[in-house]
Specification:
Blueprint (H helix, E strand, L loop, with lengths): L26 H7 L18 H6 L11 H10 L4 H6 L6 H92 L1 H14 L11 H59 L24 H107 L11 H62 L6 H4 L4
Helix pairs in contact: 5-7, 5-8, 6-7, 6-9, 7-8, 8-9
Length: 489
């Protein structure tokens, strides 16, 4: 059996005791263990030295081991050795016994010294080996702590880099989201203008209340703006959700980074601890306590997963920003294209309405001129008819006067025929003039109705021009610029 912790080179071996070093035997212990040869049958080694005669005479005396402690003290106190008794005693050992006892003590002492020397050499070698082992173990532990610090420093740098990238990405996404919100707000004004144009054009009257190209383009513009707004709102919701995901990933990174900083500070302090450092102490049973929550593989995988998750969220965020940029440019182009299309339709419609109004005014002027001439004609016809009344009266008066001729004088002569023909001619003329007068009056009524229709249509055209040119186009003079439609203020 070897001592616990001893090397295979040790030469001193003996059973392990409860002490670190075995007790070294002394001269007293040698004498105590030595049994004298001249005292066979001696049962009381611990009693005072006496002769056999004494033991025989005192055999009836109780032994000291069976006596109580108080009685023993009393016996010791009362026992008195007198000189006369000393002379009566005989020697117990021989000189040979004395010599052999000394030699035995010398040999035992030398053996004890040799054992102690071997123990000392083995113990020194053991202490040196253990010192080197402890030093190597401590150096290995320090090296492991240094490697652990390098790992923590590496992952901390990776986390810091990823946190910086995520902060930059969050700021960029927030800026794009703000631009999207501004662009969405900018679409409200064009939508309101288009809807007000449709509302104003509902005030057109009569025949001008047509479903023309302007109205079609205005409806298409409202649909385009609402479609753009809907797409913007969807992307805005995606941006809000992506921002929440980015901030959650950033929180995980920052928490992991904070844990890494704390662990690095603790491991750095442990790495710099030496045997002479302050603050070192015993913590009994700490080696049996295992508060670990992870292994090296799971530890690195946890941080790697956080970084990969953050990179995935950054990639999604970057793609979303690109989608928002494309959406802003697309919606801006679509709204501007439809706005220009509506303005072109308005311009064309206003031109058509203005031409129609000018034509109506021309026709109205001609109609008024014709009405004036027709009225003059009617007045001329009335005067002509009136002028025919006097000749008719003259002719009829002549015929009536000639009917008063007496007897045979009442001749159907040539004057009579001429007067009859004259009367009939004048009556036919008056009838013809009256027919023309009625026709002229009918024409005048038609012209008046045409004038009224022209004037009404002219008022309709004027109202349409006012709505399209003054109401609608005046509002459409201001439209958000392209930078404003893509979110720049």
């Amino acid at each position: 059996m070897e001592l616990l912790g001893s090397t295979q080179m040790a030469t001193y071996t003996r059973p392990k005791t409860s002490h670190f070093l075995p007790a070294i035997s002394t001269m007293a212990s040698s004498y105590r263990t030595h049994q004298p040869l001249s005292a066979p049958g001696n049962q009381h080694v611990s009693t005072p030295w006496r002769t056999n005669t004494y033991f025989r005479t005192g055999s009836a005396v109780p032994s000291l081991s069976s006596m109580p402690r108080d009685a023993l003290d009393l016996v010791r106190a009362k026992t008195t050795l007198f000189p006369s008794n000393r002379t009566a005693l005989t020697a117990r050992y021989t000189p040979d016994d004395w010599y052999k006892s000394n030699q035995s003590n010398y040999r035992e002492s030398e053996s004890s010294r040799n054992s102690a020397e071997r123990l000392r050499r083995d113990t020194v070698r053991l202490m040196q080996d253990k010192e080197q082992l402890t030093r190597r173990t401590q150096e290995t532990t320090s090296r492991n702590l240094g490697e652990r610090l390098n790992d923590i420093t590496f992952w901390r740098a990776e986390l810091s880099h990823e946190v910086d990238n995520m902060v930059t990405e969050i700021a960029a996404l927030v800026e794009v989201k703000r631009r999207l919100e501004r662009a969405l707000a900018e679409t409200e004004s064009p939508l309101q203008v288009a809807q007000e144009c449709l509302f104003h054009r509902e005030k057109r009257m009569s025949i001008d209340l047509v479903h023309d190209d302007v109205e079609k383009d205005l409806i298409r513009e409202v649909e385009t703006i609402k479609s753009c707004q809907e797409r913007m709102r969807r992307h805005l919701d995606r941006a809000v959700a992506q921002l929440a995901a980015n901030r959650a990933a950033q929180h995980e990174l920052e928490r992991d980074l904070s844990d890494k900083v704390t662990a690095q500070r603790i491991d750095d302090r442990c790495h710099h601890l030496r045997n002479t450092s302050d603050g070192i102490s015993f913590y009994r049973g700490i080696d049996r306590l295992d508060p670990s929550l992870s292994l090296p593989d799971t530890w690195s995988k946890f941080t790697d997963d956080n970084i990969l998750h953050s990179q995935s969220q950054r990639a999604s965020s970057h793609k979303l920003r690109d989608d928002i940029e494309v959406l802003l440019n697309t919606t801006s182009n679509e709204m501007w294209k439809q706005f220009n299309s509506v303005n072109v339709a308005f311009t064309s419609r206003i031109s058509e309405t203005a031409d129609a109004k000018n034509s109506l005014q021309t026709h109205l002027a001609k109609t008024l001129q014709e009405i004036f001439q027709t009225e003059m004609l009617i007045e001329s016809l009335k005067r002509a008819i009136k002028d025919k009344e006097s000749p008719l009266k003259v002719a009829q008066t002549r015929l009536e006067e000639r009917t008063r001729r007496p007897n045979v004088e009442l001749c159907r002569d040539y004057p009579y025929h001429r007067l009859v023909g004259e009367v009939r001619e004048i009556e036919d003329t008056m009838l013809c003039l009256r027919e023309r007068l009625m026709e002229a009056e009918g024409t005048l009524q038609t012209l008046v109705k045409a004038k009224v229709a022209l004037e009404h249509d002219l008022s309709i055209k004027a109202n349409s021009l006012f709505l399209d040119q003054e109401k609608c186009m005046s509002m459409r003079k201001t439209f958000p610029s392209t930078p404003r439609l893509v979110g720049y203020s």
